[in-house]
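Proteins fold reproducibly. Next comes an illustrative record:
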Amino acid sequence: MIQLEEIIEYRHPQVIARFCKEYPEMAEQSEIIFEDLMRFFWASKKHEADKKLTPQNPALDFIYIMDEEMKGIDLMWHIFLLYTQDYADFCQKYFGVFLHHLPDIVDPEVDETAKFEENLEKFLNYSYDALGEDVIKRWYLV
């Protein structure tokens, strides 16, 4: 699997510029939002790989979701998707597969409040360990 540091270095100036144009209120944070999208992709694939390696690990029994608090990252992903060939090439180069965006797909098991809270707790713990405290604070404005 690719190293986190390598994927964070990836840039797509046109995506970032379009994000700034469409969401001027987030323009100052556009570079870090793009980096956080890279972090999200990486951690999502890492979670998938870790789960395959240790499927009985209860700490990995959760769905790696993009929560509402991470809206800026999701908006950046939407813009990246508009550059279809670049996005497909990026996915192939860094992950070997196309990373599909599944909007508004809520697993019925996660939709219930208790299940959602359990999923979110595991997601946060995993992301904290994989990406660090500063990222979690940024994503959740703690």
Observations:
- The mean pLDDT is 92.
- The helical segments are 4-8, 13-22, 30-53, 71-82, 84-95, 108-111, 113-131, 133-140.
